[in-house]
UniProtKB/TrEMBL annotation, chain B:
Keywords for this protein: Cytoplasm, Schiff base, Thiamine biosynthesis, Transferase
Residue span, Thiazole synthase ThiG domain: 16-261
Species assigned in the record: Ancylobacter moscoviensis
EC number: 2.8.1.10
Protein name according to UniProt: Thiazole synthase
Amino-acid positions noted as binding 1-deoxy-D-xylulose 5-phosphate in the UniProt annotation, renumbered to this chain: G169, A196, G197, N218, T219
The keyword Membrane is assigned to this record: no
Length: 350, 270
């Protein structure tokens, strides 16, 4: 069966193609560009920064983990996630499907049991299996949860690859360092993917700050993302290859961009140090913070006003939800399809 | 009129610093899956007072406004807290900011002494309470069941005490029922709220049966699989416990006390 994102289902562009302007070249904007271009639209992306994916996509973990997210998110996130996982594996290179590992310190085992009750798609594994999957964690944990069908990617590389594909294969025009609403609106449809910047139009959007860091160590290797549960300081480690590890992420109810606090770094570092002491000697390559756009229910939305479609509220689920939302946005524009799971109102009569 | 009769002849409300509320469940606002679920849980429970933390959310430019606005829009009383504060100075600064942001003299005072258990630093607590009361705050101190500390908080000007049931987030329930019972007996006229450590509704009901005026909790609802349903369950348990207290429960006896005569039955130990 073909997935909805398979290139062979694409429609060639014709002379009277739909002209689509996409505002924002983060994960939402780029996946929307792809979805519209594949339907035969003539797509232009405008981005105020100097390159693709330099907003909060830049700081994403890149875990394609619908089952793990199911523990704390609504079922719709997992549904969008399964579709998006397939999309990424087709659309860009280097999306290893090594699964995810969820672990806890012995005193936090109640959190591991709780996690297991809230989701599916895993197996309980013992110390032998943990050591077989991740040899460097041998002897450190007695039990854990293994989610074999999940995958991960490196967000910056993935968005760079997607950008090249859009330009080379789909003839998408990208204008960087450009303002989205510059009066030059010959577009039939505008897709607003500005994230939190769209708060000027979407008043119920709020920011949720996330902080992360990247460590470099040759003393430890991991094949897959590892989540360490803790009642107050849950942390995840995503291997980025070449000895790099992305550690994330805090979730703080404010919209303060860029400022990383000592307490957050202390918490993330002590959690990762508890996973393996080698991280104590690791080099800090990068620290970063940005603000995720979220609606009050922390679920993503498509909204249509006139000829503008807003794709927003992806919260912690940018890479997990964007491709599935992008496909829906294109179907909304081309076919008028209504998607109640991600739309507040029915716009079919418009 | 004794206390028990008074309780039954007036509407059963509880008063904190002159503010009367019907609901004896106070809810924290952290850790919910989303602000929308938080709002629904509060509505479902009938809670009239919610706590909100500021220390970490405020950043350098009070940048937590969106979330705080959601809290204000809930239409319930806000009890800002100093969660995460470890020094007297930090707690006082946070309380001052809270007063400015929410326009209330109320503050739930937490001065954390130990990271692992989040046990209150009772020395810092008394000191901070004294300063805040002098500055016009109405302080709800998060404390232990220690009676001497409680005395000192009252002489510092606190008119409400909030002893822990168990460490924050542990869900262990009432770890020291004897201590909590003595505290109730020692301070019959002070509103007492069990704060922290409550895991399931039966813990909350037990606190109410013990004569506590209210229960404050967060994790038990926020981290439940269905927070809205759990909020409702706690509201009912608290009502049940309160009703039971007013109804004057039977005494516990060492021997079974049959309610029907046993005459005519075979002789015991034949």
């Amino acid at each position: 069966m073909l997935s909805p994102h398979d290139e062979t289902t694409a429609t060639p562009r014709t002379a009277n193609a739909m002209r689509v302007k996409i505002v924002g070249a983060g994960v939402a904007g780029l996946t929307c560009a792809h979805a519209f271009a594949r339907r035969g639209a003539e797509v232009t992306i405008v981005e105020r920064k100097a390159g693709s994916g330099q907003g909060c996509s830049w700081y994403a973990g890149g875990m394609l983990a619908p089952w793990c997210e199911r523990e704390s998110a609504e079922p719709i996130i997992a549904e969008l996630g399964f579709e998006s996982l397939d999309y990424w594996r087709e659309a860009v290179p280097d999306v290893p499907k090594e699964g995810s590992l969820v672990l806890a310190q012995p005193r936090d085992l109640p959190d591991l049991r709780r996690f297991s009750r809230r989701t599916e798609g895993y197996e309980w594994i013992d110390d032998t299996r943990i050591a077989a999957l991740e040899p460097d964690l041998e002897g450190r944990f007695d039990q854990g949860l293994f989610f074999p069908t999940e995958a991960h990617l490196e967000p910056r590389k993935a968005l760079a690859a997607l950008t090249r594909k859009l330009v080379d294969e789909h003839h998408v025009t990208i204008r960087y360092e450009a303002e989205g609403f510059d009066g030059d609106d010959a577009a039939d449809v505008v897709v607003d993917c500005r994230g939190l910047a769209a708060r000027d139009q979407l008043e119920d959007l709020r920011g949720v700050k996330g902080e992360m860091l990247v460590l470099y160590s040759t003393e430890i290797a991991l094949k897959r993302p590892v989540r360490m549960l803790h009642p107050r300081i849950p942390v995840y480690i995503v291997p980025r290859g070449d000895g790099h590890f992305m550690i994330g992420a805090t979730s703080i109810e404010n919209d303060e961009r860029g400022r990383v606090t000592g307490r957050s770094m202390l918490e993330l570092l002590s959690a990762v140090y508890a996973l393996h002491p080698a991280f104590g000697e690791a080099e800090i390559v990068e620290i970063g913070a940005d603000v995720r756009p979220a609606f009050p229910d922390n679920l993503p939305r498509l909204r249509r006003r006139g000829n503008t479609i807003y794709v927003n509220g992806l919260y912690r689920h940018g890479f997990l939800a964007a491709p599935a939302l992008a496909r829906r946005a294109a179907e909304l524009a081309f076919d008028g399809t209504h998607f109640p799971e991600v739309m507040d109102e029915d716009h079919r009569e418009w | 009129m004794d206390a028990m009769t008074e309780k039954t002849t007036h509407a059963d409300t509880v008063e904190f610093y002159g503010a009367r509320v019907n609901s004896r469940l106070l809810l924290g606002t952290a850790q919910y899956p989303s602000p929308a679920i938080l709002a629904e849980a509060i509505r479902a429970s009938g809670t009239e007072i919610v706590t909100v933390s500021l220390r970490r959310e405020s950043g350098v430019a009070k940048s937590g406004q969106s979330f705080w606005q959601i809290i204000r829009d809930l239409g319930v009383k806000v009890l800002p807290n100093t969660a995460g504060c470890k020094t007297v100075k930090e707690a006082i600064t946070t309380a001052e900011m809270a007063r400015e942001l929410f326009g209330t003299p109320w503050v739930k005072l937490e001065v954390i002494g130990e990271d692992d258990t989040l046990q209150p630093d009772v020395f810092g607590l008394v000191e901070a309470a004294r300063t805040l009361v002098r500055d016009g705050f109405q302080v709800f101190p998060y404390t232990t069941e220690d009676l001497v500390v409680a005395e000192k908080l009252i002489s510092a000007g606190c008119e409400v005490l909030m002893p822990w049931g168990a460490p924050i987030g542990s869900g262990r329930g009432l770890n020291n029922p004897y201590g909590l019972r003595s505290m109730r007996a020692h301070f019959p006229g002070i509103p007492l709220v069990v704060d922290a450590g409550v895991g399931v509704p039966s813990h909350a009901a037990a606190a109410m049966e013990m004569g506590y005026d209210a229960v404050l909790l967060n994790t038990a609802v926020a981290k439940a699989g269905d927070p809205v349903r759990m909020a409702r369950a706690f509201a009912r348990a608290i009502e049940a416990g309160r009703e039971a207290l007013i109804a004057d429960p039977m005494e516990v006896r060492d021997m079974a006390a049959p309610s029907t005569p046993v005459m005519g039955r075979a002789v015991l130990g034949q």
